[in-house]
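Write out the 3D structure for:
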Amino acid sequence: MTLSLRDLTIGYGGLSAVDGISLDVAEGEIVALVGESGCGKTSLARALLGLLPRTATVTGSALLGEDELAGRTDWRNVRGSRVAIVPQGAMTGLSPVHRIGAQLTEMLALHGGHSQPAELLERVGLQQAMLRCYPHELSGGQRQRVAIALALAGEPRLLVADEPTTGLDVITQRQILALLAGLGTSMLIVSHDLAGLIPYADRVAVMYAGRLAEVRPARTLADEHAHPYTAGLLTATPVADRRVPWGSIPGSAPALDLLPSGCRFAPRCPLATDRCADEAPPLRAYGAAQVACHHHDKPAYPVVPRGDHPQGPPVARVRSVRHVYRARSRTVEALRGVDLDVHAGEIVGLVGESGSGKSTLARIILGLLRPSSGRVEIAGEELTARRGRALRRLQQRIGFVHQDPYDALHPGMRVESLVSEPLVLAGTPREQRAGRVREVASAAGLPVTDEFLRRFPGQLSGGQRQRVSIARALAAEPTLLIADEATSMLDVSTRAGIATTLRTLAVDRALAVLFVTHDLGEAVQSCDRIVVLRNGTVVEHGLSADLARAPSHAYTAQLLEAALTNKDG
């Protein structure tokens, strides 16, 4: 056995983030640890590498071979050489000022690895020429491969991969997971994407509020799952098939100081009874699986499929937009004559992998970048012809939701100030701001209590932060909302909840929404129409249902295949 956890508990100030976890990882086995944000996955992973803050307390046992990791203080001969991490954001694990070759050489020298830098790159599918590159010269997928190579340098017995595909497009996600699965190394993959890991893991451990809800062989989980929370996570995963309804789990995971006394999932469970509220179910073995549920024999999760809604007049028009980036002696044509319409009351998905031109087009529509040629109209007014105050006035009609909810909000501002800031900039009288803040906060699905509005971003979950970003984008009453990869950093249930909120806003407020994403499955479930962008060119567009049923372009079919492979296995 490579890793053996027994009754592992991790606490912060007397509150348990991980509560009595027992789990094994066999030699060469890949175990996926999945669950929503705040369930304790990251705390468990960081405990295995000695990366918890000093205020954390660890009890129980975490044996890596003969090495006890729980409560360990000397990590010099363990971290990197016995257990290594593949971080979530590759750029956080790479030095921006050193070439790839130098970083690999340093890691090999530090941990006594026997490979050569070029051999490590070859193992992760990269060419030797990349040894001379800096991280910023590589794509997101290439940087993640380098991060894997760095983790392999010390020839560890166990790899801990912490959200290794978050933020990557679906094709690159599949490539990275296939690479990890082919390494033959014992691995614990931490992720919020349950369905996406099923094709690549040997076993899946579903975690909720610090405890294991279900542990089962990955090949049987999709059809034989027995815990309502597992069913909810699968339901919350977007699939590139409009016949499959998509819905979020109501509510949110409990705070550490508000944990229920019985089953911790009971307040959100459609099957909960009085017994569930009073008695915590133990993790019991049922054949090859383990399940902690009083109603394991009848899992259910009701969802309501959304309907289509009629569209209104066009709000955004993009015509023949072309953009060229010039760098030193070369030019890159990022957009090549793009046409696009977004109507009131509809959500249009702009889909493509990294480097397709999606973000460039979004910046041009926002008026943050002038196209090389072509025009953009917002509610009949030409944006590309505006300057100065006239441009700023028109930009107020466009709301923007950033990809990363952790970087988009000023950490020193309270929720009320963050949401009201656009109103201040627009000159809204003070006496009107408080009511407007509460109105858009409620529309974005946030509590409107004084206590919540006084919180700082650091006191909010990822989903709450993104809802604050949505409320902030709604504050100035825009006619167009651009959501740029607005769900890619969130767990699957939160993603479904955010998408549902955007749908409600589009319908109830006749808001035009441009939903930028790399995930065609999510776009099919979320959007009325889809525009597929590749290398700066629109290769296909049409109704979501039609495109999912019969894509006409080979690239769309490739994206569809990647979405189906990642979600269905």
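The CA atoms of residues 141 and 172 lie 6 Å apart.
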